């Protein structure tokens, strides 16, 4: 059963790598020799009979039509890859010394959310046999860390805006008004 399922599921890929049916003309006014030579030609077919992880000459790590590809596996790979640009963002925002301290702490605290979500997801998969989003108490605990992250970032930005407003008020009150001197 599994062998026939796999064979039937690879048919879309197989149909891309063989000669199309329209090259077999139903009428006899075309010369059959030209049609057969076109069918045997390898220039038009970039696949050249290869099947598997290759889609018409483009090497792909997975077969895009395979039913075993699920959004969970792709999402986890993208999630893992997204840590590299985020660490670069943390490096440059720390180096610039322009972010308020609480906001900077909030951005770093997001790593705590990531660090807690990964083991929680593994635990949900092993212990409950499902994803983290289906186990309410684990998912809620992980999302509470994300809520704290958002609070730290927003409160830090609010503190930074208030400092800017206070410094601007101090500058305007310390400079003498030119109209009052006359």
Automatic annotation (TrEMBL):
* Pfam families the record matches: DUF3593
Keyword Membrane included in the entry's annotation: yes
Q: Keywords for this entry?
A: Membrane, Transmembrane, Transmembrane helix
User: In its keyword annotation, does this UniProt entry include Transmembrane helix?
Assistant: yes
Question: Which InterPro entries did the record assign?
Answer: DUF3593
TM ranges are 74-93, 105-125, 137-157
Q: What is the name listed in the Swiss-Prot or TrEMBL entry for this protein?
A: DUF3593 domain-containing protein
Q: Which organism is it from?
A: Phaseolus angularis
> Organism classification, top ranks?
Eukaryota, Viridiplantae, Streptophyta, Embryophyta, Tracheophyta
């Amino acid at each position: 059963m599994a062998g026939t399922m796999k064979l039937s599921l690879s048919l879309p890929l197989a149909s891309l790598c063989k000669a199309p049916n329209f090259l077999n003309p139903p009428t006899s006014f075309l010369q059959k020799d030209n049609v057969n030579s076109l069918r045997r030609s390898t220039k038009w077919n970039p696949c050249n009979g290869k099947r598997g992880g290759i889609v018409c000459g483009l090497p792909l790590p997975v077969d895009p039509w395979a039913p075993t590809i699920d959004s969970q596996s792709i999402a986890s790979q993208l999630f893992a890859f997204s840590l590299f640009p985020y660490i670069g963002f943390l490096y440059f925002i720390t180096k610039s010394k322009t972010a308020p301290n609480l906001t900077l702490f909030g951005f770093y605290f997001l790593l705590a959310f990531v660090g807690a979500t990964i083991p929680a997801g593994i635990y949900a998969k092993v212990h409950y046999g499902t994803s983290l989003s289906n186990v309410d108490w684990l998912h809620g605990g992980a999302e509470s860390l994300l809520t704290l992250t958002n609070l730290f970032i927003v409160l830090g930005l609010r503190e930074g805006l208030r400092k800017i407003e206070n410094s601007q008020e101090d500058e305007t009150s310390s400079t003498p008004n030119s109209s009052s001197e006359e």
